[in-house]
Every structure is written in C-alpha cells, then in structure tokens.
Write a structure and sequence with these properties.
It contains nine helices and 17 strands. With about 325 residues, it is an alpha/beta fold. The chain is globular. It starts with a strand and ends with a helix. The structure holds adenosine monophosphate and magnesium ion (MG).
Length: about 325
C-alpha cells in the first residue's frame, strides 16, 4: 500500500529524510508526478528502475533547484545558460555533457556521457530538492509503458506498493512530460516534444531540429533510449484520427462531437459516461494536454473495446499531444 500525504512543511521534511536514506518518494511537478531518488546514490536509483520495471538502458532526468547545482553536474555552455535563464524553472529538459566530477550514479545516465537535467516549476518539488540537499533523479511515477501519472491516485493505482510514499499536491498543471532538448551537439535537437516547441526555442538557439524516433528504430539508431519504447499506452487498442465510432468503442473527443456517428446507427451523444471524454470542448490545446493522461485512464475500462480519438491539430502543444497519442496507439 502507498501512503499518500498532503505536501506541507512537515511531510516535505519527512520525504526529504526518505530521499537521504536512499528511499523513493513520489513527488508532484508541473508536468507529471515523478518517482524520485537521490541521484548520487546508485542503490537508490536502482530502486526506481525496479519499482517501475523500467529497462535499465533508459536513462532518467535529474532534477535540481537552481542553475548553480546544475553546473556541478553538467557542462553548461552559453546556449544552455541562456535557455536556463529564460525557461527554468519549467518543463524544459536539457541533455548536456556530464562533468567527470558530477558524482551522479551511472545508472541515471544509463552509461551515456550526457545527463538530462531540469529545474521543475513546482514549489513542492523545489522545496523537496532543497530540503534533501541532493539532486533528485525522477522518471514519471507510473509502471513502465503506462500513461504518466498526473494525480496522486494514479500514482497509487499504477505503482501500488512500489511507491510507498506519495507527496500529494493535486493534479499536475501541464499534464504532459517536459520537452527534451539535446544540446550535446552543435545542432539542438528536440528528442521529445512538450510544452515548448522548436518555434519557442529558436529565438535563443537558431535552427532547432526534431528527432522523435520511431518504434521500429534499432537501439543504436536512436538518440534517446525512451524513443524506442512503447509508452503512454492504455491496455485497450487506441485508434487515431477517428471520424466515426465502432460499436463498443469509447470516444476521446476534441472539440465538438456533433458530427460523430456510431457505425450501424447512433451518435456520440448516446455514449454512456464511462465511454466518452472530451479533451477540450473549446478545442483548447493547453486544456487538452492537461486532460490527456487522466482521460486515457478513465476510458481504459474492460467494458470499452477500444478508444477512438478525434484528430488533434499538429501545431504548438498539438505536436506533443499527437506524439503521446501515436505511442499510445502502438500499444
Ligand atoms: P521520463 O523521465 O520517464 O519521462 O523519461 C525521460 C526521457 O529522457 C526518456 O525518453 C529518456 O530516454 C530521455 N533521456 C534521459 N537522459 C537522456 C540522455 N542522457 N540522452 C538522451 N535521452 C535521455
Ligand atoms: Mg515516463
């Protein structure tokens, strides 16, 4: 059983003690809930991989509370410092060369010469990092391959005993994982789309490329090991760009459902409450992003034979939403 404790000064101190003792704490961030451990302690980090059943070749993001702490772990060039100034704290993860003196467990970087690092924009996460006085390695707080957990209840449901201590602070604001930007080479490359798009970053960097990988890529072709993994997947089939519904399918809508029919007769308004969710009736991408994982979980019920998802525009935050949906559909 997990213990869920509302975040306050006392429970943050309790959680910090657990981190210092080599244990795991599920913590809120602005993106999704993380499953955190002391990034300097190899055994603590190993517990994250075991709890999530995460393949050990898939590296973790290190969370710090300030730029000075980041500079003790990675080499920050002028580009990185400029981005940190503009986008940190916030949902932007930078892949940077690891310093020899970093002291970070090799398990965190899965043996790579680089480290993924960011400062989260959540006062509980920041308070926990400061109180623990160590960098915290934290992937999303869900079993590997499942949709990321965006509420304490989802953490408990996905990880159970494997997340013994959950620091709770309600639902996450953004609801989607951070943008991962590889700054280890000359050309900056987005390895995972998120709130910040190439367009947002280009004023600071010049040209930014995307490399989102794909499921069939061999391990040595991919830049970011997470790219080859089935991710964010419900246990029932997910069908994208649906313009109508099959009988028994649930609907994940975006915008108006007025013209959604059910093959063989009926329309979206005949669906039961357990078979219909709308990411955003007003077609608002920010609202849709924050609802995405919760609604996928809501519809992932044995009584639904699959989830039909209406099309989402492929601009701005829509790039990240479509990336997560296409991975969910590969399950
Ligand atoms: P998660 O923390 O589970 O949301 O996933 C972190 C993502 O960052 C995964 O897709 C990892 O493969 C990726 N990642 C972490 N560290 C690195 C690194 N050093 N180089 C490239 N990708 C990384
Ligand atoms: Mg994850």
């Amino acid at each position: 059983m997990s213990i869920i404790k509302t975040a306050n000064e006392a429970t943050i101190a309790e959680a910090a003690q657990i981190i210092q003792d080599g244990g795991l704490v599920a913590l809120p961030t602005e993106t999704v809930y993380g499953l955190g451990a002391n990034a300097l302690d190899g055994q603590a980090v190993a517990r994250i991989f075991a709890a999530k059943k995460r393949p050990s070749f898939n590296p973790l993001i290190v969370h710090v509370a300030d730029v000075a702490s980041a500079q003790k772990i990675v080499k920050m060039d002028a580009r990185a410092l400029g981005l940190a100034d503009e986008f940190w704290p916030g949902p932007l993860t930078l892949i940077l060369p690891k310093l020899d003196t970093a002291g970070i467990s090799d398990l965190v970087s899965a043996g790579l010469p680089t480290i993924a690092i960011r400062i989260p924009a959540h006062k509980v996460a920041l308070a926990l990092i400061k109180k623990s006085a160590v960098p915290i390695a934290a992937p999303s707080a869900n079993s590997s391959g499942e949709p990321s957990a965006t509420t304490p209840r989802h953490v408990a449901k996905s990880l159970g005993d494997n997340a013994p201590f959950i620091l709770a602070a309600g639902a996450c604001d953004v609801g989607l994982e951070s943008t991962v930007l590889d700054l280890s080479g000359d050309v900056p490359i987005i390895l995972r789309p998120g709130v910040f798009t190439a367009e947002d970053l280009e004023p600071y960097l010049g040209k930014v490329d995307y490399d989102l990988g794909h499921k069939d890529a061999s391990k040595d072709q991919v830049k970011s090991p997470g790219q080859i993994l089935k991710h964010y997947a419900p246990s029932i089939p997910v069908r994208l760009n649906a313009v109508d519904l099959e009988k028994g399918e649930a609907l994940l809508a975006f915008g108006s459902t007025k013209f959604m029919g059910i093959r063989g007769g009926g329309s979206a308004k005949d669906l039961t409450d357990t078979a219909c969710r709308n990411l955003s009736e007003e077609s608002d991408l920010t609202e849709a992003a924050s609802n995405l994982f919760t609604m996928l979980r809501d519809l992932d019920m044995p009584e639904n034979k699959g989830i039909a998802v209406m099309s989402i525009p492929g601009q701005g935050l829509g790039i990240a939403i479509n990336d997560r949906l296409s991975r969910a559909a590969q399950g």
